[in-house]
TrEMBL record:
<keyword id="KW-0175">Coiled coil</keyword>
<feature type="transmembrane region" description="Helical">
    <location>
        <begin position="229"/>
        <end position="252"/>
    </location>
</feature>
<dbReference type="GO" id="GO:0015031">
    <property type="term" value="P:protein transport"/>
</dbReference>
<feature type="coiled-coil region">
    <location>
        <begin position="90"/>
        <end position="124"/>
    </location>
</feature>
<feature type="compositionally biased region" description="Pro residues">
    <location>
        <begin position="58"/>
        <end position="73"/>
    </location>
</feature>
<keyword id="KW-1133">Transmembrane helix</keyword>
<dbReference type="GO" id="GO:0032588">
    <property type="term" value="C:trans-Golgi network membrane"/>
</dbReference>
<comment type="similarity">
    <text>Belongs to the SCAMP family.</text>
</comment>
<keyword id="KW-0812">Transmembrane</keyword>
<keyword id="KW-0472">Membrane</keyword>
<feature type="transmembrane region" description="Helical">
    <location>
        <begin position="167"/>
        <end position="186"/>
    </location>
</feature>
<dbReference type="Pfam" id="PF04144">
    <property type="entry name" value="SCAMP"/>
</dbReference>
<protein>
    <recommendedName>
        <fullName>Secretory carrier-associated membrane protein</fullName>
    </recommendedName>
</protein>
<keyword id="KW-0813">Transport</keyword>
<dbReference type="GO" id="GO:0055038">
    <property type="term" value="C:recycling endosome membrane"/>
</dbReference>
<feature type="region of interest" description="Disordered">
    <location>
        <begin position="1"/>
        <end position="83"/>
    </location>
</feature>
<feature type="transmembrane region" description="Helical">
    <location>
        <begin position="272"/>
        <end position="295"/>
    </location>
</feature>
Amino acid sequence: MAGFEENPFAGDSENPFADPSVASVTNNASKGLEDFNPFADANTAQPTGAKPKTTPAVQPPPPPPPTAPPPSSSQPAVLPTREEPPPYVIEEEAENLRKRQEDLERKAAELQRKEQELQRMQFGGYRENNFPPLPKKCPCRPCFFQDISIDIPIDYQKTCRMVYIRWQVYSFTMFFNFLAAFAMLVKGAEPIHDGQTFGISILYLVANVPFSFLGWYRPCYNALKNDSSFSYVIFFLIYFLHIALNIFYTLGIPGGGTCGFINATQVVHNSVPVGAMMFTTGVLLLVGVIVDIFLLMKVHRIYRMAGASFEKAQGEFASGMASNPHVQSAATSVAAAGVRSAMTNQK
């Protein structure tokens, strides 16, 4: 038993904890356990001899942008000042307002004039003629009253305006034909018929413009205005003749008075500008023939829709002749002369 009572670690050489390296570790461990405080901050309470842990610095979020404080009830809200427009902008606006005011005044005057004309028509008053629009200082006075918006029914106003525009373009075509013939005379590009085309072009300008107005535009105006079968028949007859003459004008026979395609082809070799003017005249005449055919078909369609006929035209002609004061006076004179001659024979 004595052997068991001996301390196996009595000798320093045999004691494992007597090693200096082991003793230092055990001493540091015991010191760390004594200094450890579980309630201390995790960053400060670290075991002795251990390296402190470094945490990366966290950037704070950027501050929010400053917002304008809501307007209080005690302080009034300050509105931003508006820059004044430049002076030229103000002048343009004033000019536009002035033009609009003038347009409104002109339209108001036109409406007042139309109301007066309608009142005169209702009460059978006299309507002052307004066509052709001559200046007040002119000694001649207008011969016709023309107002499509008053006289013509709404359904036919577009057609009547188209016929009126066609008459205006036809008048311009006759004037341009006169200019082309005059240019051809000045350039001497017509050696065979010297001056003949120019002379006849003056006749066409002086005669065709008023005759076309009286011959086919005015009958069309009266037909659409009064739904007159007689005016429709007159329009169709004269308009057919008008189309046939325009086809002849388009050809441009040398010495025929018009600058059409035939004489334009002969003249263009002598003078290119004069030939170009003559070709332009031929194109205007040709396009006019096409438009004339279209308008003739359009007016004929209205003629059929209105129920007009040749028999009604004959009846209107007879009643018009009977109600005409000149015809009545002539018939009275003829009847009185017949009675006197009969009484003289009896004696």
